[in-house]
User: Fold these one by one.
Assistant:
Number 1:
Amino acid sequence: MNEPGPSAAPGAVFLSYASQDTDAAQRICDALRARGVEVWFDRTELEGGDAWDAKIKRQIRHCALFIPLISENSQSRKEGYFRREWNLATHRLLDMAPGTPFLLPVVLDETTESAAFVAEEFLRVQWSRLPGGATTPAFVERVFQLLAAHAAPSRAPFPLRSSSAPGLPAAPAATRRWGWPLAAALTCGVLAGWLALSQGWLHLDRIPETKQLVILPFKNIGASPANEAFSDGLSETITAQLTQLEQFQHTLLVVPMSEVRKESIGTASQARSVFGATLALSGSVQHEAGIVRVTVSLVDTRSLRILRSATLDHPMDEVYRLQDRVAAQTAEWLGLALSPEARRVLATGQTTVAPAYALYLQGLGELVRTGNTDAAIVHLQQALVSDPRYALAHAALGEAFWQKYTETKSRLWIDEARRSCNAALEFGAALAAPHVTLAVILNGTGQYEPAAAEAQTALRLDSASTDATRALARALERLNRPAEAEAALQRILDRYPANGLAHMALATFYWRAGRNAEAESHFLRVTELMPDNYAAYRNLGGLYVMMGRSERAAELLEKSIALKPTAAAYSNLGTLRFQQQRYADSATLFEQASQLSPHDHLLLGNLADALRYLPARANEAAPVYARAIGLADEALAVNVKDAAARASIARYCAFSGAADRARKEIAQASALAPANLPILLNAAVVFERLGERDRAVEALTAALKGGYPLADVNQNPDLAALRADPRLAPLLAAPAKTGER
């Protein structure tokens, strides 16, 4: 080994690569050395340890430019050697003067920004793509430019291989690289954050005024599945804590993690396009030698600049302090002062038992990430064995039991869910979350008055809770108190006018109420605020189907399906084709919808309706109606007051020859929701099918006067004969105005 000789370029380059990318790294090394660039390129056979650590630390500390080679190989969690070098580079950045170039990522394959282990905010700064390590003159020139801009530090001596020509070290034969046994993984958020600081890109005074925040699912650094669940659970708890801070000020809106996961949001740019978020909090979690290290970065979603970044370490025996530190750090970055009351709210229901907290995060992560309800229940129950008074764990267990019910329709899980929520309130009386879960359970079982009471209690504890507000609105609407339900939904929007999800909820309410102009206005606003949100186009397209705007409806629904295929989008498009008497296309679309959501009786009922109009498949309609009736009966077994389910059963029975039950179900549905427009339309279809023309005219008249879309009535083939009744002529001649208020 000799000391490094002088190089023609001002400073040395450190080349970091994965073992499987040795050949590509050699090509880049050879090209740079051919131009007189000093390259520190370790190909010696090392097993890690103190000697390797000391050598690599000196090299990274004194190099002028650090070039990591990014590929599928280097992104593997098994590449501890590569990750260790990244981590050392992070520490190097701490000591560098602002404005000093240091990092030049090079991508060797088709690895995309979203798939790379390093964050998109980092790769967008400066990176090159050299397939297989094939260099270009432009790349070599860029290296020279960065080296020239770098104030070359003094280089301490350390051994490198000798050269075969003066000043040009020879490339030794390739040997294997060894993994680092307890490799510190790349803390990409901190690395990117310090990169931003050193390059002058970090604007500490430019936090957006409107703080619509998305917490991205935290990345797990390591191969353990248990740690994956831990990372996901931590994302959930931090989202919940920051959401609780909304009630103490009016500049923050946190997008629910359930929505983030539903839309598979993984990057800051996606958070902006799908939710209109102005900020994103990204993070990673690493477990090593009894320490949990969490790296968090606050990102401006417009510029993709990292505005703030930090690394927080905690020993496992104090891991329960972690979420408080992350939430407090984020609140500080956002300029939110934590009052004593806010701190009290954040501390409510927590634990100081480290094993209980770790199991709680794991259970929560299983629940939200994989949908493995059984595993979630087991971990949450184990958490409660460690700390029986852990209120948040009781609350999460209540949610898990309710989710188990929705999966199995077994009523025993409802009782378990209630018991867990009540236990959560016993040990955490000031928690809003268990009241919200109870409201959801009560709404789902037809107990609307107590559901409204639970939601109102939750709002007294957390006045900004959107989940509680929506649960309240749902209960009020089913209690036939639409004005109060509308006011509740409007309060969410009044507090934060740019809340796209609130516009969506209000638009859907107006749609159900037959107030189509208002529904359209809010749906259009959603598409402005959340331009890549598939649900916005699905819902607006569905509204246009009902309004007879067929061409625009098809365009929007096809766009929704392109963004994300969903049962509802296929169903809406199937309804449009049904109206257009394209029954074969309609049946195909309803079949696709049913495949995505096989337990939805509405989709099966729609499919049976289409099959009736296909001579070659008409005999399939009856068994499909029977399946739809069976699923709707399961819903009634839980909620006997489900008026919509009863109206649907009435229609299925009317076309299946079960006239008596059809009359019984439509009568009960009408009594439960006398002003519900879809139920009124169903009644018209049912009575017409049963040959009771007078009652059909009465029901359709009420629906049209209430604001039900005339276009949908005119295009419904099941109402063709009824539309010819002269008593309906005045209403069918022009749209009703009553519902367009």
Number 2:
Amino acid sequence: MKLPIIKTLRVKVVLLALLPIALVMVVVSVIAYTAIINSAREVAERRDTELARLAASRLSENLHHYVRTLQSLSASDACRSLEPQQIDAMFAASKSWLYLFDGGVFVYSRDGTQVWASPFAARQHLRRFPLPELFDRLENSLRPVFSNIFSHDAVNEEVILIGVPIIDAAGEFVGALAGFCSVRFSLLGTVYARVLEFESGRKGYAFLVDGNGRVLYHRHTSLLATLLDASEPVARVTRGETGATLTSRPSGERLISGFAPVPDTAWGIITQEEWSVVSAPIFDYLKLFWGMLWLGGLISAGLVFFFIRRILQPIDTLIRGTRQVADGNFTPITVPTSGDEIEALGRQFNAMASALSASFSKRTRELEAAQEELIKHEKLSVLGQLTATVSHELRNPLGVIRSSIYFLERKQPNADPKIRQHLARIEAQVELCDTIVNDLLDYARTRQPEPVFTEITPFLESLVEEIALPDDIHLRCDFEADIPIVPFDRIKLRGAITNLVENAVTAVQAKQTEKETPPDYQAEISFTARASRRGVRLTVRDNGVGMSPETAAQAFEPLFTTRARGVGLGLAIVRKIAEEHHGGVTLDSRSGEGTVIELEIARWGHFNAAAAASHPSTPSVTQEKDG
């Protein structure tokens, strides 16, 4: 009689063998599940904590841009005077900066009484500073303050207040300058959006609350000014805590939330993402793990001891790997070369760790790049506003002053020498102001270069002849033979070279005035032109005062200068011209020894090389010019 297959000894042995295997697999599965889920939660909490902290730092930097605007106004003599007429004149020239404060801008005296209100806020009549405790903090700390959301009888909207102290020349508190922003309609919402609308995941977002837990910014505008202090992340961030936590909605859906306070305010940022979005890939890996583990147990029932050893060792490795990931170490684990599913699982785990590491690094780089781009954008925006203001407000008055000087000189040809001396001083200062205006316009204007293939040596010779130097400064020029024909814009290149030579003249003149300069010091400037691998390299070298490493590192930054006069655009313009010619500029300077600046003009690939080769080479030119 043939026994049913279920009653065969072979099946019974296999079934008996499967019991300890099944028990071991259950234990291993539970351990792996717990370790991976806990590790994933820790990694997600670390990520969300860092995202919230970086977003809070970026928001603080954005807010302080507008604080600096208020501080620059509060530091003016008009604001310090607390005289409404003077303040009116000051704010009339600065009203384009105050579009953010749709609730009005107010000036208060030391006792908290209003002395001035912006025209569009005059009807609101905030005769007293609305938040006395915030006013006391302004007086005691002399630092900017950001209020929580509040309502006022004179303001029919939920608002926040940004205030800065008014400090007189003696450093004493004399009053406060405050801007009011409505929560629902102020353009401050665009500042929040630039920082907080980031891709944390398919369903992730961030929002901003004040120190009482009321919503300052949220993707869902219906929640603005809503009190959320019952939420754990909100409650913790209002206590000044930074971190992340798992919470549940009333619907039962779990959320992972990161939170961090915004520096220098009582506000806080909370990031939120559905936990299912984070955990879904992990559960996929767990399902794969369980499937392979149980399949391996069924297939290898007859070789139980061998497979136990083979299974437990890789699992231990995976557990150690998950602990590494939980500690923030994304180093790949050692994958066993068994050639089976466990090896595949180890590789998949390494792929997961690498993906988490890449995601974390990418997000950090994106936030840093966004922050740098935002700073650069804000700086260029300020420069554009400054250029427009200066060109409009100064050039016409400068023209009037110049015409008046000419008229006075013609009308009084035999005037007293002192009068002529003062007229000359006025004219010199007008020329200085005109130079500053031209520098600003040169940097801000967007005219594209108009390069023409030209022999550069005659151009340089002509330019050198136009340079007028003091008699005690020696200029040496050396232009190499066989300089390639390169395309360049004559006007732009003339401006760049003139700028470099003028900087060199300033440096050697400063050296001449130093007390420790040797009596036999000879001020020298050299100007050379050489063929380079990329095209032509122009070098201006001087033996002047040089620069410190810190100054040299910032020399090409717009608006950076160490001079008492000027706006710091000279070298920035030179770099811009070099980049427009597909080249570059480098600086090598040592304090007390001198400076070397090299400007390179590149050959452009879309020009026909044969056209350049058809021009004859220019002879070597070596010439010296004194004075």
Number 3:
Amino acid sequence: MNPTITSAVLPEDALEAFAGAVRDAVAARYPQAEAANVAFEAPRRPEFGDFATNVAFSLAKVARRSPNDVAAGIIADLEASAPNVTALFASIEAVAGFINLRLAPVVWQSLVARIVRDGASFGRRDGDSPRISLEFGSANPTGPLVVVQGRALAIGDTLARAFRYCGYGVFVEWIINDAGSQVETLARSLYARYCQNFDASYPFPEDGYPGDYLLPIAQTIVERDGEKWRDASESEWLPYFGQFGRDTIVAEQRASATRFGVQYDLWQSEKELRASGRMDEDLAKLAQMGLIYESDGAKFFRTSEFGDDKDRVIIRRDGSPTYFAPDIAYHYEKLSRADRVIDILGPDHHGYIGRLKAAAAAMGFPGHLEIMISQLVSLMRGGETVSSSKRAGNIITLDDIIDEVGVDAARFFFVMLATDSPLTFDLQLATEQSNENPVYYVQYGHARIASVLKNADASDVEAAHAVPSLAALAAPAELALARRLAELPKVVRGVVDHLAPHRLAKYARDVASDFHQFYSECRILVDDRETRLARLALCIAAKTVLAEVLDLVGVSAPESM
């Protein structure tokens, strides 16, 4: 199984060649059987090899033999008829009916060479995939972004980066919920804070927003307008304070998102959507499609015909739209300009899933809308729960979290668990410089590689970048690291297919762990030049992949720590 292989062969090339050889062998041995479907998966236990295929199971009935006998027969045929293919594998074994494969070191060496050559473009695809509309983080413009919105921002932006890596065109948007009663409540709360600058006993509304964040906004109005609004009528001050508070808070939310490394293509005002007439136009289109009917003075959307538990009111008896009306109109616009629409909603929005998906189906886009729920975040510090209540006025903002632990730790911790799982964020752990802190562990791995390359002779590093012979990479720790690096494109593809950004955080830790293992077992700057250059090339590949996966999560890759 080990003749000389003169050309670079990558893992996918080896598996494709193996699948073709198996199909040929099956056709020759079992001409009565249908064409063999040769699929590969990772074995449950690493000692069984790198890949396995269950092709023998589908042939057992035709062959009238056990799957393991069929697998052994296929292997014997390949060794006789396709030695150029079997040479790509260190071992090919029949185990419990499976054909277990372990790739030859030269294949992993070729993979390392590709990463070194491709650099940050390794695994990336050109933008020829469907268009994605991705909405996340959207919040009422009544206060600063808080922790649960920080998690949605980290999840959404990581997904957007993963989609772009896979070649999708991504349009990232935020809906400003500024057309409901909450803006009037904001206006009354802000006006009370304004008046309290002149009369401390001025009553605060019972249903108001008591957070201290309104104090500097009120102070700004005092500095601008003085006592101008104290004797104004409510019809004068209410719209002014509502608009001023809304604009100021939205600007602060945008600044927080930017500080967190998140940029949006569109900040869509719900109020503007209504005022422009687009909502009425979209609802009129839906009425023409027969999707809206009137009953008892109200207008209903026929969502029950598309999986919802009941039809939904969109226009009340008094002619005012419900919250669902602009949601329908906005989703109609998104679905009309994208191939796939993804919403990341907060933990209190489970009830919206059925009605929104039904609305999408009713509008002619069944299956085009996907909804994720970003679950709650509990804060801990030193083993104690950190509590907050926006209604009570003691809130912990996203900026507070960034101030305490930094953007890197916040983003990494926010995406560590599956989106639909509640997250306990340990603020103390996030600031520790120890291997127990996952983001520190991963970033230290990148910094350690950078240190190795910095301490190596510059001419050696240059030669390693030119991809020398990598035949010296054969130790178990070296091959294990190479195998892990090869997983990057597949991992990102899994993130996109399953909307699972937490896989990137896990993969980053796995890469760092495998590098640390390699570093402890294989001295890099050895006297033998071929071995030294090969290991430096492996370091360059590991640094490239680790930097790429950190960037996908929105975390920096430090050169030193």
